Amino acid sequence: MAGKRFARRVKDIDISGIRKMFESAGPGAINLGLGQPDFDTPSHIKEAAICAIREGFTGYTPGPGILELRTALCEKFKNENGLEFSPSEIIVTSGASEALEIALACLVEPGDEVLIPDPGFVSYKTLTTIMGAKAVPVPLEEDLTLSPQKLTEYIGPATRAFIVNSPANPTGAVQSPEDMKAFSQIADDHNITMICDEVYEHFIYEGRHVSPALYSDNVITVNAVSKTYAMTGWRLGYVAARDEYIQQMLKIHQYVQACANSIAQKAAVAAVGGSLEPVITMREEFRKRRNVLVEGLNSIGLDCALPGGAFYAFPYAGDDYPDIVSELISSGVIVVPGSAFGSNGSGHIRISYAASMDDIKQALDIMEKTIRC
Ligand code: PLP
């Protein structure tokens, strides 16, 4: 095996900072490093999956996903986002991760550029790099949002796409409805594509979510049931876009995935077609935890603005943040250094509050002792 040649663009990829933290968690550690709801998938969704297995719904499905699910997703888009899509404008994917992958794969080639928020979700840079294109980081503003005006300054002749994520990982920031409209206008003005990652759309505590696809056809909307319905392991996402995009994305999807998991698709019909009640219950629990965490962080001297959405706090810890992260991990609290999300995340720490209130309070006690001594 020695001396085997591998693609440089893959060899050079760093192992995700989040995974490193996850793997370094000792037994009994409080894990505030993970981006997944700590709730169980609602029972009616699990029942739908059990039923699918009993009925032998275990074979390949149509590549874009079962019509029942794509129809339910059209209803969801209409009722929750005011968007009109037909089932043929939706592809059901293996999580939002695959949705991002096929969106980027159909848009870029070597030499092209994709503008990404910095700090931003780890996959944006890596997937762009894997596609052979260049990710161009756009620094976030002081309030941790992406400025449409700043974004425009980074657009050049090689720019093919830009990614917006609201509410955002790792910052919890929510873009305003005006910003979303401005982003869609930028896509139209420059004839480039906006990829809008909306996986946290239901976890907003201040502000409201507006889908930019309302204003432009140059938008690829990426979403998933992963976070919304506590279904991260089911691997079920979706992408919605106008036909021109779908035709290209389908070509990639059919070879990399064939189809999304058949059982998870049936479960997603129950999720998307069911009541939002369990989601609202989760959201309100997250809101309480966010308030306790952010107040606690500020009281121990970690400067933290109140994040409007998702389930992450992103306090500023200063130049010593790598030492603080290491000390917290040695003391049994797993958090992620902000630099894992881009160089502009340096100085910050990402703390997930998708953990029980008891864990959050205990972690705050440990943080207070660690940071004060
Ligand atoms: N987009 C964002 C902003 C995320 O935070 C994540 C997961 O953490 C994903 C996409 C990937 O979601 P999925 O698990 O559905 O692939």
UniProtKB/TrEMBL annotation:
Residues in Aminotransferase class I/classII large domain copies: 29-363
GO BP: any one term: amino acid metabolic process
Pfam families listed in its UniProt record: Aminotran_1_2 (PF00155)
MF annotations from Gene Ontology: pyridoxal phosphate binding; transaminase activity
Keyword Transferase included in the entry's annotation: yes
Record-linked Gene3D superfamilies: Aspartate Aminotransferase, domain 1, Type I PLP-dependent aspartate aminotransferase-like (Major domain)
Domain of life according to the entry: Archaea
Keyword Transferase (UniProt): yes
Keywords: Aminotransferase, Pyridoxal phosphate, Transferase
InterPro entries named in the record: Aminotransferase_I/II_large (IPR004839), AspAT/PAT-like (IPR050596), PyrdxlP-dep_Trfase (IPR015424), PyrdxlP-dep_Trfase_major (IPR015421), PyrdxlP-dep_Trfase_small (IPR015422)
Cofactor(s) required, per the database record: pyridoxal 5'-phosphate
PANTHER family in the record: ASPARTATE AMINOTRANSFERASE (PTHR46383), ASPARTATE AMINOTRANSFERASE-RELATED (PTHR46383:SF3)
Entry similarity comment: Belongs to the class-I pyridoxal-phosphate-dependent aminotransferase family.
Subunit and partners: Homodimer.
Protein name: Aminotransferase class I and II
Organism, as annotated: Methanosalsum zhilinae (strain DSM 4017 / NBRC 107636 / OCM 62 / WeN5) (Methanohalophilus zhilinae)
